Automatic annotation (TrEMBL):
<keyword id="KW-0119">Carbohydrate metabolism</keyword>
<dbReference type="Pfam" id="PF01182">
    <property type="entry name" value="Glucosamine_iso"/>
</dbReference>
<feature type="active site" description="For ring-opening step">
    <location>
        <position position="134"/>
    </location>
</feature>
<dbReference type="InterPro" id="IPR018321">
    <property type="entry name" value="Glucosamine6P_isomerase_CS"/>
</dbReference>
<dbReference type="GO" id="GO:0005737">
    <property type="term" value="C:cytoplasm"/>
</dbReference>
<feature type="active site" description="Proton acceptor; for enolization step">
    <location>
        <position position="62"/>
    </location>
</feature>
<protein>
    <recommendedName>
        <fullName>Glucosamine-6-phosphate deaminase</fullName>
        <ecNumber>3.5.99.6</ecNumber>
    </recommendedName>
</protein>
<dbReference type="GO" id="GO:0006043">
    <property type="term" value="P:glucosamine catabolic process"/>
</dbReference>
<comment type="similarity">
    <text>Belongs to the glucosamine/galactosamine-6-phosphate isomerase family. NagB subfamily.</text>
</comment>
<dbReference type="InterPro" id="IPR004547">
    <property type="entry name" value="Glucosamine6P_isomerase"/>
</dbReference>
<dbReference type="GO" id="GO:0004342">
    <property type="term" value="F:glucosamine-6-phosphate deaminase activity"/>
</dbReference>
<comment type="pathway">
    <text>Amino-sugar metabolism; N-acetylneuraminate degradation; D-fructose 6-phosphate from N-acetylneuraminate: step 5/5.</text>
</comment>
<dbReference type="GO" id="GO:0019262">
    <property type="term" value="P:N-acetylneuraminate catabolic process"/>
</dbReference>
<dbReference type="InterPro" id="IPR006148">
    <property type="entry name" value="Glc/Gal-6P_isomerase"/>
</dbReference>
<dbReference type="GO" id="GO:0042802">
    <property type="term" value="F:identical protein binding"/>
</dbReference>
<keyword id="KW-0378">Hydrolase</keyword>
<comment type="function">
    <text>Catalyzes the reversible isomerization-deamination of glucosamine 6-phosphate (GlcN6P) to form fructose 6-phosphate (Fru6P) and ammonium ion.</text>
</comment>
Length: 232
């Protein structure tokens, strides 16, 4: 893994943006995208850039179950607001949280097989989750329905009026699906991510810490601010 530590999230996000630009310059056509607060600065930099994404395809990691595309809490809505409305892509693929589980997950795997991900952007949960793959998820998992941990519900409730409104289930790319990306960029900011980052980078490779599987991938760049790096 390549480790990059920047002074703050802004500089770290700028570095991530440069990596995406470089990959596009070398022919990358498919970006795997993440939600959450971590990539928000990156998406702002992408929005403000003069880069044309109209030849690019995007595929998102995950989506809450039971929320329609136009729900203000859906990851569809988040992605449109943060990036797609300002920067049109050729095609944006996101899981449909209202669709039938079996059909939707199988179809999503077909989409990824037909559009192999060149660069996958990842955040990390405080418990080491990637996408919505909570600790204990099998390393050979593909896109599936997942149950969210209470700690994930608690972290994400800030986006909802009430904790009760946070969906308990989601559809998420599996660990194996994520590993199929040619290049992975993991970003983490803030001291609350420091222990998950330490375990992911320096701990044993274990399903109990999903992000530790990234140690097995041949092209991972980890971009941290100083706070997220403070335990390394
Ligand atoms: C969420 C998302 C993940 C994200 C993570 C961290 O639950 N499903 O894709 O990486 O948790 O979120 P944040 O960036 O807000 O800390």
């Amino acid at each position: 893994m390549k480790l990059i530590i920047k002074a703050n999230p802004e500089e770290a996000s700028r570095y991530a943006f440069e990596k995406i630009q470089e990959a596009m310059g070398s022919g990358a056509k498919v970006l795997g995208l993440a939600t959450g607060s971590t990539p928000v600065k990156l998406y702002r930099i992408m929005r403000e850039s003069d880069i044309d994404f109209s030849g690019m395809t995007s595929i998102n990691l995950d989506e809450y179950m039971g929320l329609s595309e136009d729900s203000p809490h859906s990851y569809h809505h988040f992605m449109h607001e943060q990036l797609f409305d300002a920067k049109p892509f050729k095609k944006n693929y996101l899981l449909d949280g209202m669709a039938d589980e079996k059909e939707e997950c199988a179809q999503f795997e077909e989409i990824i097989a037909a559009n192999p991900i060149d660069v996958q952007i990842l955040g990390i949960g405080t418990n080491g989750h990637i996408g919505f793959n909570e600790p204990g998820t099998a390393f050979d998992s593909r896109t599936q329905k997942v149950a969210l941990w209470q700690s994930t519900i608690d972290s994400n409730k800030r986006y909802f009026a009430d904790e009760k409104d946070v969906p308990r289930f989601a559809y998420s790319m599996g660990i194996q699906t994520i590993l199929s990306a040619k290049k992975i960029i993991l970003m983490a900011f803030g001291k609350e991510k420091a222990s998950a980052i330490k375990a992911a980078l320096e701990g044993p490779i274990t399903e109990e810490l999903p992000a530790s599987v990234l140690q097995t991938h041949k092209d991972v760049t980890v971009i941290l601010d100083e706070e997220a790096a403070q335990m390394l």
